[in-house]
Specification:
heterodimer, A: mainly alpha, 58% helix, B: alpha+beta, Alpha-Beta Plaits, Calcium-transporting ATPase, cytoplasmic transduction domain A, 5 domains, 49% helix, elongated
């Protein structure tokens, strides 16, 4: 059962990491425009070289 | 492993514009409303077009809210940007204030923390359920307590606040049993943990908080979308007016206008403030205020009211009452007074809570007394009473309404119907009579072509009419469908005046009477001949169909109008409505709605004018078209943004379907309780059972909500 001493803190740390990541996404406004962002994900425009016109 | 931002080599060469496009401005200074955007391409084109404008440093479209946030010098006039967007085919309006971000982030943060805590605690609980015992179990319970108690206390704050509010008014709402269950679950589990007990309900307390917060977040999102869409509608009102300053015409925000300012109005624009006519004469469309369809001519020195439309122009008016004092505002205030009447409606969820809370509290109390009396074991009795309270906790009930409303209002929003009030869907589902205001909802203004007009002249008229986007000129086209167009040279549109062209060296014009030198409102000129075109009112193409569909659903349709009996009867006959009430003042409309409702009917009022505002507020439910005045839209429960009145039928259908889903969800929650309550009362409830039952019922209710269509 000694392994619990490592595993329990590990699982908690991972959970906390996810929570921190979540707070970061929330702070950087990633939930403000869900509809728009699901489309932007498919956008090749920014990844491709800029068209010269 | 470190997390770094992926940089695509291709991006290195992009210029400033492309990098700034799509990035959220740190401090947006301007917000534009873009009612017509709907896809990635739209977003991209809007952002690139805006960044090509001088002074714009960043622009980002928010598709969910149909807005674009722009960073530029504060105070810059957005008129050129709007013009640039119009030029590439996007309708754009200035929003009243640069909006911040959605203000539900506090709730979302709580939801996230509750989710984190729930997952970790459940993980520990799974170990306990699968057989951890003695010291290991106690250790796990202690760790769970360490996570669960602070998390639950923080995350359930919104429920505690609301429950405290209700209790301080000596009322019971849904949040009272919720708060009690969360607090008791934590307290009981802590007690058990300290005494090395077998059952701790920490995970139940957290999943309860998590699921219920989910419902709250959905509700808040829906409300803020509706609110921002509603304030966007308000922005369609004239925000910029042309003020004459030392003989020069300068575009100003409406808030800057003071009494005695001279304002210049183009033909077809809405009068922004109350005032007095300075020009010689003007024709006014007063239908929004009075309901009469005939234009009214007034002369110099006569008063004009905000909300009227100048049909001829340009004209100059002198402001006499602005802002809160103007007649438009007074109407809005009247409407908000009438609104109080509507708040008496009790939402289905509240009615369920009224039944639910006493029942559950009664049962747990009875369980405590019963077990204490039967066994004399107070600890066991308290255990059972509390587990009853936890297991019956309204997870499913709390989600039943918001999940359905979110799905239904979202679906309607995509169909172009904005649902503004929280109980609107429920009330729309219950209506049994439909009252229509005539002008603007079932009819439109059109120009009548004289019968004696020659076919060759009709051909010229058709070409001229199709050259302009003005609604009146568009209204000519259906009557000219089978006439071939004549090719014309030098077609030119003169803003606020009309269209001119050359037909074989003969100058031809279609435009306002004042421009063509005739008394008529609108006329066609071919060479020296002037043919006046009279404004008539005709039913919208889809109106008859709409009325028939509603009647087929068993809803009697009445026509209410401030117009004369003759006009009203004519329209009524064309549409085949069940009853017509003509010559109604706003108060009479209100009285009619109230009288019909005291007889037990539930009226849906559909209207767009200021004269309908009172009736809209008094009716059981109400709708207004997107082109209606702000005051009417404020008063209405639902606004049809698409301009397609047939969307009304969709709205009624979705509302009825949503109501059915809500009732089904209550049924599901009741069934689940019917099974779990006896088990809990008999003392068989375990934390594992509570966890399973809670998540299953919540998921079932959410899935059922998706069926609202």
């Amino acid at each position: 059962m000694d392994v619990l001493l490592i595993l329990v803190p590990c699982s908690l740390a991972l959970g906390l990491l996810a929570l921190v990541a979540f707070v970061w996404t929330l702070r950087s406004h990633q939930y403000d425009d869900l509809e728009g962002d699901q489309m932007r994900a498919l956008d090749e425009y920014e990844a491709a070289p800029a068209p010269k016109d | 492993m470190s997390v770094t931002t992926t940089v695509c080599p291709g991006c290195a060469g992009t210029d400033r514009e492309l990098r700034a496009a799509g990035r959220m401005p740190d401090v947006p200074t301007h917000d534009l409303i873009l009612p017509t955007i709907h896809c990635l391409d739209c977003m991209r084109r809007v952002e690139t077009a805006l960044l090509q404008q001088p002074g714009v440093t960043a622009a980002r479209v928010n598709l969910s809210r149909k807005r674009v946030a722009i960073a530029a010098e504060p105070g810059t006039d957005p008129a050129p940007w709007i013009a640039a967007l119009n030029a590439i085919g996007f309708e754009a309006h200035e929003a009243r204030a640069a909006s911040g971000t959605a203000n539900d982030s506090g709730l979302v943060l709580r939801l996230g923390i509750a989710g984190f805590a729930m997952m970790n605690v459940t993980l520990l609980s799974v170990a306990v359920w699968s057989g951890a015992s003695d010291a290991t179990r106690d250790l796990f319970h202690w760790i769970a307590a360490l996570i669960a108690i602070p998390a639950a206390l923080y995350c359930a704050q919104p429920f505690f606040d609301s429950a405290r509010g209700a209790l301080s008014r000596w009322q019971l709402n849904m949040d009272v049993p919720i708060s009690l269950a969360i607090i008791l679950a934590c307290a009981l589990s802590l007690y058990e943990t300290m005494n090395s007990g077998a059952h701790a309900y920490f995970d139940a307390a957290l999943s309860l908080t998590f699921f219920l917060l989910g419902g709250r977040v959905l509700e808040a999102r829906m409300r803020s979308t509706a609110r921002s869409a509603a304030s966007d509608l308000a922005a369609l009102e004239p925000r910029r007016v042309t003020r004459i300053e030392d003989g020069e015409r300068i575009s100003r925000s409406i808030d800057e206008i003071v009494v005695c300012d001279q304002l210049c109005l183009a033909a077809g624009s809405r009068v922004p403030v109350d005032g007095m006519l300075v020009s010689d004469s003007v024709q006014l469309d007063r239908s929004a205020l009075t309901g009469e369809s005939e234009p009214v001519s007034i002369t110099e020195g006569s008063p004009v009211s905000a909300g009227e439309v100048a049909l001829t122009g340009p004209v100059t008016i002198e402001a006499s009452a602005v802002g809160e004092a103007s007649s438009l505002r007074r109407m809005v205030q009247l409407a908000s007074m009438a609104e109080a009447a509507r708040n008496r409606y009790t939402a289905l969820a509240d009615r369920a809570a009224k039944l639910y809370a006493p029942l559950v509290h009664g049962l747990s109390f009875a369980a405590f007394v019963g077990w204490a009396w039967a066994t004399g074991d107070f600890h066991k009795a308290a255990m059972i009473a509390i587990s009853t309270l936890i297991i019956t906790c309204p997870c499913a009930l709390g989600l039943a309404v918001p999940a359905v409303s979110t799905v239904a209002t979202g679906r309607l929003f995509r169909m172009g119907v904005l649902v503004k009030s929280e109980t609107a869907l429920e009330r729309l589902a219950e209506i049994d009579t439909v009252f229509f205001d005539k002008t603007g909802t079932l009819t439109e203004s059109a120009l009548d072509i004289p019968d004696e007009l020659e076919p060759s002249d009709r051909a010229i008229l058709k070409t001229l009419a199709s050259a302009s986007m003005h609604p009146l000129s568009r209204s000519l086209l259906p009557a000219l469908e089978d006439i071939p167009e004549t090719p014309l040279d030098h077609i030119e549109e003169h803003t606020g005046q009309g269209v001119s062209a050359m037909a074989d060296k003969t100058p031809v014009c279609l435009g306002s009477g004042a421009w063509l030198g005739t008394a008529a409102g609108t006329a066609l000129r071919i060479g020296e001949r002037v043919i006046p075109l009279t404004r008539i009112e005709r039913p919208l193409p889809e109106a008859r169909n709409l009325v028939e569909t509603l009647q087929a659903q068993g809803l009697p349709v009445h026509l209410l109008t401030g117009d004369t009996v003759g006009n009203a009867e004519r329209t009524a006959q064309k549409l085949g409505v069940d009853a017509v009430h003509a010559g109604m003042t706003p108060d009479e409309k209100l009285a009619l709605v109230e009288k019909t409702q005291t007889k037990g009917a539930r009226v849906l009022m559909v209207g767009d004018g200021l004269n309908d505002t009172l009736a809209l507020t008094a009716a059981w439910a109400s709708m207004a078209p997107g082109a209606a005045l702000e005051a009417s839209q404020n008063a209405a429960d639902a606004v049809i943004l698409s301009g397609r009145m047939a969307a009304m039928v969709d709205a009624l259908r979705v509302a009825r379907s949503a109501r059915r889903r809500i009732l089904e969800n209550f049924g599901l929650a009741a069934t689940y309780n019917a099974i779990s309550i006896p088990l809990a009362l008999a003392g068989f409830a375990t934390p594992l059972m509570a966890a399973l039952a809670m998540s299953t019922s919540s998921i079932l209710v959410t899935l059922n909500a998706l069926r609202a269509r």
